[in-house]
Amino acid sequence: MIVRHLELVDFRNYAAATFDLHPGITAVVGRNGQGKTNLAEALGYLATTDSFRGAPDDAVIRVGTDEAVVRATVVDGEREQLIELSLSRHGRNRVQVNRQRLQRARDLLGALRVTVFSPDDLAVVKEGPGVRRTFLDRTLTDLAVKYDALRLELDRVVRQRNTLLKQLAGRLDDADTSTLDVWDERLATVGDRFGVARGTLVERLAPMVAEAYAQLAGIGTPVELRYDPPWRDGGLLAALGAARADDVRRATTTVGPHRDELELSVNGMPARLQASQGEQRTLALALRLAAHRLVTERTGSAPVLVLDDVLSELDQQRCTALLHHLPPGQVVITTAGVLPDAAHPDAVLHIAAGAVAG
Amino acid sequence: MAAVYTAPVQALIDELGRLPGIGLKSAQRIAFHLLKLPAADVHRLSAAINDAKARVRFCQRCFNVADGEWCPICLDERRDTRVLCVVEESRDIVALERTGEFRGRYHVLLGAMSPLEGIGPEDLKMKELFARLEPEGVTEVILCTNPNTEGEVTALYIARMLRPFGIRVTRIASGLPVGGDLEYADELTLGRALEGRREFATDPAAP
Predict the structure, then answer these.
(1) DSSP letter string over A56-86?
(2) pLDDT (tens digit, 9 = 90+) per residue, A146-194?
(3) CB of A175 within 8 Å of any CB in chain B?
(4) DSSP 3-state of A107
(5) In this structure, which of A115, A196, A267, A313 has its CB flanked by the most CB atoms within 10 Å?
(6) A186–B156: do the CB atoms touch at under 8 Å?
(7) Band of pLDDT at residue B204, cut at 50, 70 and 90
(8) What average pLDDT score do residues A31-37 get?
(9) A181 and A198 part of one domain
């Protein structure tokens, strides 16, 4: 997939700006605070309809205005599409493909896939399990849009079940038992499906992460991914049954995909606690790179790759290795400093104060 | 937040905002529209609401809207009493009736199970449903609740409760809109339609 042309109106610090992106490597150069990451964020918005920085919609609408528009011409093989997203401070967000309005914002998913590498990726390795679940679930959605609906359904069932548990206030009579039974059954149906999807994904991803890690680090280090939630063997329904007394007492759902962990290890040690900073950073990059390659392989077209300010964080050897191993496809590199020699951009855009300098 | 509007306007906005599908913005827009209308128009609207509320009741048997004790469908002698279609709201009956495919009777639950909205089975017309089965000689219950989280769970609950009755329980199928293209179906609907596929029998005697 290639974004040929990108247009921003009242998005972050851009009042109105257009960017022509090269099908190869485009370098976006500018000092800090000029709008490089905002450009990367806008591309991400078209892919996921939200911010990869986790910002609410309100925060990306330019101060003093009520509506932001992100518009792009996307080329995928022979197909060219104009996709548009408008974010409104007051009304509903709207999405359009080829000027046809789509019913829901999430109908836009799949029209453009973007892989963003950002310094925040380190969180996938260093922070809590929720970040890793999000990483897996976003990758699943990139592979097939139906997983996004499955995730939403899972969230909904868990919220409903937790609310029910709170209403029980620690007591469970016969009528409540019948009600809880059906919520368990629904959660198990959705959860088991989700567990299989995540399990299959991790199986496919694991060797690719190890390979990417070796390429970036330059040495073959054993890297492992393990997704082995305790409820998977006997099924979620049995696990919910076993945890019921505990769930009722604690008034929350203590077992299920919303509590799962993706364990990462380097050299047989848990990456979160025992890996060095350098190893953690390399692993974070390797996870992104592997997911990007898997999505490319499975969908038959490479997502647009955005390297947002990550090169400056890497030592020269890893930086060169990353650039050397970039998969074919469109790449956008943002940097505040000098581009590394290995970058070889096909085009350079200079950004200053929310505008493209000539 | 401090009240921006005078008390009567704020009260109107608050009341409108409680209606389903009406958010704060819409409530404000409707409120100011009403305030601009001639008094006669506003009276007609409030009279229509009062009148409907006073005269329309729920059918004592199926909880469809009715203007007497029973709704027109329950009064219709020609309807098949053996098949009962369970729906969430009266408006679902209207949709099903338009198909002309169903000749049985209905039962309206007046909602679906949703802890987030504080609705459990005891808040729905469930007991009334179970009480109808034997007297009316029902042999099949069709669960026509919505194909969303709450509708599915409600259908599941009823199906479990119906087990001891030993009657046929079916769930309405999810699938593709007729006359549509596969290409334009969303992935969930298409997935469900694939799951619920049927044997496509051809007559072996045909040439």
Answers:
(1) -HHHHBPTT-SEEEEEEEEEETTEEEEEEEE
(2) 899 899 999 999 999 999 999 999 889 999 999 999 999 999 999 999 9
(3) yes
(4) helix
(5) A115
(6) yes
(7) low
(8) 88
(9) yes
- Whether A264 and A188 map to the same domain: the answer is yes
* CATH code, domain carrying A230: 1.20.1050.90
Q: Cβ separation of A160 and B121 shorter than 8 Å?
A: no
Shortest CB distance from B149 goes to which of A144, A146, A153?
A153
CB contact under 8 A, B188 and A185: no
C-alpha radius of gyration, chain A, whole number: 22
**Which token pair is A260?**
């799962």
A107 touches chain B (CB under 8 A): yes
pLDDT digits (tens, 9 = 90+) for B136-184: 999 999 999 999 999 999 999 999 999 999 999 999 988 887 777 777 7
CA dist., res. A171 & res. A174, Å (int): 10
Most A CBs within 10 Å, among B22, B123, B153, to test the A interface: B153
User: pLDDT tens, A288-336?
Assistant: 999 999 999 999 999 999 999 888 888 888 889 998 998 889 999 999 8
Mark yes or no for CB contact A156/B160 under 8 Å.
Answer: no
Any idea how long chain B is? 207
- Quick check: A146 and B114 CB within 8 A? no
Instruction: Tell me how close the Cα of A183 comes to any Cα of chain B, in angstroms.
Output: 6
Same domain, A289 and A307: no
The enclosing domain of A102 has a CATH number of 3.40.50.300
Residues A86 and A155 in one domain: no
Q: Which of A300, A326, A350 lies at the terminal end of a domain, its last residue?
A: A300
For residue A253, the distance in angstroms to the closest alpha carbon of chain B comes to 14
A146 vs B121, B152, B187: nearest CB:
B187
**What is the domain count for chain A?**
2
Nearest to A37 by CA among A330, A238, A334, A301: A334
Answer CATH for B7-55 from 3.10.180.10, 3.30.70.100, 2.60.120.200, 1.10.8.420 = 1.10.8.420
Contacts of A106 in chain B (CB under 8 A): none
Say whether residue B163 is in contact with chain A using an 8 A CB cutoff: no
- Decide which of A300, A329, A345 is a domain's last residue: A300
Distance separating alpha carbons of residues A281 and A313, to the nearest angstrom = 9
Task: Give yes or no for A182 touching B (CB within 8 A).
Answer: yes
CA nearest B158 in A: which residue?
A182
Q: Which domain holds residue A236?
A: 122-300
DSSP helix/strand/coil, A125: helix
Is residue A276 domain-shared with residue A147, that is, in the same domain? yes
Cα separation, A292 vs A288, in Å, equals 6
Pairing mode, if any, of strands B57-58 and B65-66? antiparallel
Of B25, B116, B156, the CB nearest to A182: B156
Top-level CATH class of B70-199?
alpha beta
